[in-house]
Amino acid sequence: MPLNIVIIGAGFAGVFSALSARRLISLHLNKDPAAADIQVLLIAPEPQLVLRPRLYESNPANLVFPLTDLFSATGIRFIQGTVDAIRVEEKHVLVASPSGSTSIQPYDRLIFAAGSCLIRAPIPGLDDHAFNVDTLSSAVRLENHLQSLKSKPPNKARNTVIVCGAGFTGIELATEMTGRLRSILGKDADAKVLLVSRGEEVGDTLGPGPRHVISRALRQLGVETKLGTTVTAIDALGVTTEAGERIEAMTVVWTAGVAATELSKQIPGDKDALGRLRVDQDLRLPSNKDIFVAGDSACAPTGDHSHDALMSCQHAIPMGRAAGYNAAADLLNLPTAPYYQPTYVTCLDLGPYGAVLTQGWERKVVFSGAIAKKIKTYINGTLIYPPHTTNPTKALAAGDPALQSATAQQLQGKALSLVSFFTSKLL
């Protein structure tokens, strides 16, 4: 009777957990007859990976990676649909197909990698009039709207974009938006980008390390900021603030952070303030040993006892590798590979200005400007992509948890330096 490893989600964590599980199973096909009975099934609405970290860029419709050939080559079974319910006691999930029918998919091990979603405040007009770049469809909607502006009569509202939220996404979008607006409206257009935030600092969650670089980039690009400001209403022609100020704009983009998906609430277990499920070093749910969690759904210790993984592909990919390996290892009665990722790098895109690269959790600036932009381009265009091959051996190799030095043993004596890696590749 087959054993099922069921993966929910085709984001970075889901895809790399599938590759990792299949890799370990394949390595043991000639060693353990039980390996042939283990299936890896991935459930998602579409057989594609959306390059979500890049959705602030122009032409977002192109920012997808088709997965059908990769799954076929590696023996990953794809089930098209949406998981509506997770029944932990019965060890199965309910899957709604695109046609509307519902089926039951049992699991022996579940990897929950359903990701995160945009936090929406109870602001009048937010859902009807604000744009976002949280999903592919919403990013495409924003792009179509921006392109439509050139057919409208020039005025202050048409030429103004308000970005609500001065965190990672808000900064990348605002700095990118200056060039996008001018390419659409003309280089001589009186275009204005305004970054609005309730916080008193731009990028307050990023800390003081890169702040001077970010501020310099905003000034050089002409991005205006309005800090300590709360938006209380949004309509088709602008926003109203808590102070009663009216700001005209036909384009308002909401980037107020993300939290774990609603589906996370169906899994019993301790959760953090963002709704992420707290897991152990193996990415296993302490309250249910059959469930592993990876990516934005997981609040996972990085191994240095002071920091948890962030909602980023930088953490989602190695978490996927570890979760997939451990789920398969569990069924094969093999030792697990604890998730361990103490090294952290931030690379923030700053549009035409360049980028800023920081190292460590304190975010010490290492590179900025054109050099950092080159690194950011390499990350966005190469590093985060799944393997571009249908060769089973090469494709499955991308799921090896050792690629990220996943165990503490592998890291003893030599700390991984991503900055050195990037430098050797690009400089």
Automatic annotation (TrEMBL):
**Highest taxon of the lineage:** Eukaryota
Q: Which UniProt keywords apply?
A: FAD, Flavoprotein, Oxidoreductase
Q: Which Pfam families match?
A: Pyr_redox_2 (PF07992)
- SUPFAM superfamilies, A to Z: FAD/NAD(P)-binding domain (SSF51905)
What GO terms describe the biological role, i.e. biological process, of this protein?
aerobic electron transport chain
Q: Which family does it belong to?
A: Belongs to the NADH dehydrogenase family.
Q: Which PANTHER family match?
A: 64 KDA MITOCHONDRIAL NADH DEHYDROGENASE (EUROFUNG), APOPTOSIS-INDUCING FACTOR 1
Name listed for the protein in its UniProt record: FAD/NAD(P)-binding domain-containing protein
Q: Which species is listed as the source?
A: Trichoderma harzianum CBS 226.95
